[in-house]
Amino acid sequence: MSAAPRFAASGLAEPPSRHAARPRDLLIVDDHPIVLHGFRLLAEEAGIARVHEARDIVGAYRAFHRHRPAVVVTDLSFRDDGLSGLSLIRRIRALEPEARILALSMHRDPVIVARVLDCGALGFVVKDAPAASFLDALEAVTNGRSYLPHAIAIEVAMLNAGARDRPLANLSSREMQILVLIGKGKPYDEIAEILTLNYRSVVNATAALRCKLAVGSMAELMQIAAAQAGAVS
Hints:
- This protein is an alpha/beta fold and about 230 residues long.
- The chain has two domains: about 5-155, 3-Layer(aba) Sandwich (Rossmann fold); about 170-230, Arc Repressor Mutant, subunit A (Orthogonal Bundle), CATH 1.10.10.
- The chain has helices at about 35-45, 55-65, 85-95, 110-120, 130-140, 150-155, 175-185, 190-195, 200-210, 220-230; strands at about 25-30, 50-55, 70-75, 100-105, 125.
- The protein has a five-stranded parallel beta sheet with strand order 2-1-3-4-5, sandwiched between helices.
- Helix 7 (about 175-185) crosses helix 10 (about 220-230) and helix 8 (about 190-195) crosses helix 9.
- The radius of gyration is 18 Å and the shape is globular.
- It starts with about 25 loop residues before the first strand and ends with a helix.
- Residues about 1-20 have low confidence and may be disordered.
C-alpha cells in the first residue's frame, strides 16, 4: 500500500478544475430505500441527469452491464451478505477496468478500506459524513482522482508498517467476507450459499483463518469474527 499522498482527502484534495467533468449518469447501490433516496437527491443536486438504482449486488451488476454508468456509488454491506460489496467492485472492474467506483460504509476500519481500494474502488466515504464531503468525493472520483477522508488515508498508509501487529491486514477479501459472516452467526452451509462456494471451501477457509489469526479454537475465532461483524454492520 502506498503512502497517504496517493489519496485526495477531505480538505486536502486538489482544487477542482474549471473544466471538472460531471458524470452523465450514476448508479447508486444500497439496500435501504431511504439511503437510496438521499443519495439520489444529492446526485441530482450535483447536476447528474440520470441516476440508476439497485438494492443488491446481482441487480447492481445487471444495471451496470445494461447502462454502463460513468460512476458507481456502492455500499459495502448488504443485509446478511457480509462484505459482498467488495465482490461487486471486483466484478465491475473485471467487466470495465476503467470503471470509477466510490464506496460507502458506516465503518472506518482501515483494513476494510484498504480492501476496498485493492478491489478497485477509487474512493471511500463514510455514510455519516456531511453531504459536502460526499459531493467532494463524487467530484474527485468522477474526474479520476482518488478520495479518502484525511484521517483514514493516514491509517491506511500506515497499515504496511504495522502489518505484523495487525493480522487482519493479511487476510484476503474472501477471507474477510467469511470472517464477517461467521461473526454474524452464519453456519458453513449458509456461508457457502451466500458466497457461491462449496461447503468444503468454507471449511478450509475457516481453518486458514484460524491459522492466520493464530487462534487455538473456534470460540476464539468467533470472538474476533463477532467484533469484525459489528464493525461492518
